[in-house]
Amino acid sequence: METLLLVLDLVGTLVFALSGAMAGVKNRLDLFGVLVLSYSAGNAGGIARDLLIGAVPPAAISDWRYLAVSMLAGIVTFWRPSVIARLRSPVLIFDAAGLGLFAVAGTQKALAFGLNPIMAALLGMLTGIGGGMTRDVLLAEIPIVLRADLYAVAALTGAAVVVIGAALRLPATAVTIAGAVLCFALRFMAIRRGWHLPVAGEPERPAPNARAPKDRKDEGAGRR
To answer: In the chain, how many domains are there?
Structure first.
């Protein structure tokens, strides 16, 4: 299980780092800015997860492989953006892949540290959305999780699959892969078909010339 969690964490770090680096290139940041976005997007969710469950120092800081994967993704994207840009909406696709991988990896690690199933699923969701939120905040954008089609819901669904599988004592590897695939599929279909939760509408504004009925009666009495 430890090997599986490490692989999921590193692959999730890679795809989220690619999404951060690509967002930096699209916003015409310099090399340092792209690398900062790459590392932040790839590791923010995992760092938050490890701090909350007491796994300190966080793996993204204590293990050089996380930094190496993030920097590699940033450098490749900075010097060869056309390779990544061939994909349709590359930032969103890599973001969806990272979301699924981090959601299930975060849930499995939370369960391994003894958290109850509900909190483990919520922590898995937080692990999944943390990198994308950090990337968007650094770019002064409203985070995707607050405005996008089925983002946190997809992460929570993938995390729930892991929790239910653990409760039923199903094979951990199969359950983890199933949760990641389901999360990615939901997010990808939401991107393609525009699935989303209800959006808050603007409050109705009162008519500028509206007058209270009492005022109209007083005006009529004055004319008499």
So the answer is: 1
In the chain, % helix, strand, coil (3-state, to 5) comes to 75, 0, 25
214 located within any domain: no
Encode pLDDT of 144-171 as tens digits: 888 767 888 999 999 999 999 999 999 9
- Domain span at 67: 2-196
Is residue 218 assigned to a domain? no
Cα-trace Rg, the chain: 23
Place of tokens 């490890």: 50
Confirm whether 70 is domain-assigned: yes
Q: For residues 70 and 35, give the distance between their C-alpha atoms in angstroms, rounded to a whole number.
A: 8
Structure tokens at 45: 């969710």
Residue 180's closest CA among 7, 40, 2, 38? 7
CA distances from 222 to 213, 214, 217 (A): 15, 13, 9
Is residue 148 a part of any domain in this protein?
yes
The DSSP 8-state label assigned to residue 224 in this structure reads -
